[in-house]
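Self-study notes.
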Amino acid sequence: MFSFFEQLKEQLGPEFNDTLVNYQEKLIAWMGHHARKTYLNIHVRTNLKELDADGAVLIVDYKMKILPTSSRETKKDFFGKRGWSLHSVLVYTKDIEKNCLNIQVFDHWSDDTRQDAWFTASSIHTVLENLQPKPKWISILSDNGMHYHCTELMLIIGHLKEWYDVIPRRWLFLEAGEAKTAIDSHHAQVSD
């Protein structure tokens, strides 16, 4: 790629150098994004492959804000408005007999737009109370937002075995905006 751009600079002349440098930087950024996305999505697939009859993989995510009037507003119109927070938990379990994944979605709405450890914990609590059959272990995947990556939530997760008889195997923090999972598709459908 670098040789290609050098050859283009030679062929086109110095008046196109700035434009070619700009295009090359954009191409490098695009390639970096796809490399990160591929790497992070491998983590999702790896966790799903580790599923057995006793476990569950939870993918958790917040939809930033659902506005009562329109989900297609400009940023200028969007900021400062009050809406609803939506926290979703996508639960994968494995049916060993049929060798297939079962998927359930739990949506939790709040008219308080704060996305904090306590709302996240109550969302996970609701899932663990209602999930049938209850798994013996879970792995959780999320972005690395401060509502997930905080002391309060990690202390709560440390009590899952005591409170729900569920062992938290791991919490994997994915880079925000890079690993697109099925939960992002779910949020896109909710917004429309």
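Second protein, same conventions, sequence then structure:
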Amino acid sequence: MSEATTALAPLVLNIQYTKDLSFEVPNAPAIYTILRSAPQVNINLDVQVRKIQEDQTVFEVTLAARAEATLPPAAAANGSTEEKPMVVFIADIAYSGIFTLNGVPENQQEPILLVECPRLLFPFARNILADVTRDGGFPPVMLGPIDFVGLWQSRVAQMAPTVANA
């Protein structure tokens, strides 16, 4: 074998798994009788990275998504004077992968861990979220494409000290 064929890939996905999955319908069964159209769904997304062992470049990367569906107060009122939206369902998923970085300089690891790794995990987390909401009796939550580069850049911008314009 030549050196080129024995070289390790810079990014290796060792395993991926559902770390945590939760689905609740707090207003069941009443919600099924008043739901006439698709609810408003708010999505929160986060990427978390944890080094598995200090002396190795093996990381657990978790893509966490929360979908909370609500009905506006007018649609949920049914004679109630409540001003808060009614919760239709809450779905939480933490989908993780164990990644090994081979020969990647430390100053180049962050974009790989916060952009490339979640990009690999995303389709699987997306399918699980769609399945669990559909199996819960609601229209499936279909996450659109995520700009992981933009998320990473905004995270870097938030962490950087603010510099006043001269």
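Instructor comment on the second fold: Strands lie at 11-24, 40-51, 58-71, 86-101.
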